[in-house]
Specification:
9-stranded mixed beta sheet, D-amino Acid Aminotransferase, Chain A, domain 1, alpha+beta, D-amino Acid Aminotransferase, Chain A, domain 2, globular, 30% strand, binds pyridoxal-5'-phosphate
Length: 291
């Protein structure tokens, strides 16, 4: 499955009201979303036939579009029904679902008032984001030269396609240097997140995570904070400087795709896959499959 191209598979993709054959789910080359990155999307996981936090993701898609001035022509309930249809059409019970909204080709230019918001939903079976062999050792992050922009420079609370440009460049650079993913600092030089997941550290028994003022406050991040509260783990949302990593024992990432992924190394600093990471990873894995 891993090497199968995403545009050449069996199955069905919902586009603008129609369930199309997977290979026919195409857009025109003169689409505003392609030229000017006017697109927003979601990434959701399906566990035992249930989408984890499904309504939160549908609402975030609508909010992400609103931030860009795009109107999603569907309600949360309608998006929920479409996602269900797509899972059933593709017989996906454990996998990933990708709704996306973009401005079409009705108008081509910076001003895009006459474009329509188009929507598609695709789903596929999917395993872990990182190599499962890294589970007990942790993945390796390499600090990127790219920094997360401030909230008055980019729409940082929207899950918008354009924001991933520096994510891809950072992840490629990390992989070229022998890492699994990038650690991204923000415009002030504080630790922010990886290319596609939020970051937590454990320092002397306290769980800490950066304040999400210029990156996505992930749904998994919010879930982990709640689990930490339920488990009475001391927690702090704060600013973390890269130098502080010297005094940290555990690091992990959280995201729909990444789930809870232990980090074993950032640049030259080693971490252990410690008790708080394991406790929260176990709690998260139990929660996502809870009936
Ligand atoms: C850049 C970025 N940060 C954080 C996250 C984590 O968000 P969530 O937990 O809602 O999947 C994601 C994934 O959606 C992401 O792409």
């Amino acid at each position: 499955m891993g090497l199968l191209p995403f545009d050449d598979r069996d199955g069905y993709i919902w586009i603008d009201g129609q369930m199309l054959d997977w290979r026919e789910a195409k857009i025109h080359v003169l689409s505003h979303g392609l030229h000017y990155a006017s697109s927003v999307f979601e990434g959701e996981r399906v566990y035992d036939n249930q989408i984890f936090k499904s309504r939160k993701h549908s609402q975030r898609l609508i909010n992400s579009a609103d931030i860009l001035g795009m109107k999603v022509p569907l309600s949360v309930d309608e998006i929920e029904n479409i996602k269900r249809e797509v899972l059933e059409a593709n017989k996906v019970t454990d996998g990933y679902i990708r709704p996306i909204a973009w401005r079409g080709g009705e108008e081509m230019g910076i001003s895009a008032r006459d474009t329509k918001t188009h929507i598609a939903v695709a789903a596929w079976e999917w395993g872990t984001y990182y190599d499962p062999e890294k589970r007990e050792k942790g993945i390796k992050l390499i600090t990127s030269k790219w920094r997360k922009p401030p909230a008055d420079t980019a729409p940082t609370q929207s899950k918008a396609g354009g924001l991933y440009m520096i994510g891809t460049m950072s992840k490629h650079a990390a992989e070229d240097a022998g890492g699994d993913d990038a650690l991204m600092l923000d415009y002030r030089g504080f630790i922010s997140e990886s290319s596609s997941a939020n970051l937590f550290v454990v320092q002397d028994g306290t769980l800490k995570t950066p304040t999400p003022d210029c990156f996505l406050n992930g749904i998994t991040r919010q879930t982990i904070i709640q689990l930490a509260k339920d488990l009475s783990i001391p927690f702090e949302e704060t600013r973390i400087k890269p130098e502080e990593l010297q005094n940290v024992q555990e690091v992990f990432l959280t995201g729909t795709a990444a789930e809870v992924t232990a980090v074993g190394k950032i640049d030259d600093i080693d971490f252990t896959v410690g008790p708080i990471t394991r406790q929260l990873r176990d709690a998260y894995e139990a929660l996502v499959r809870k009936k």
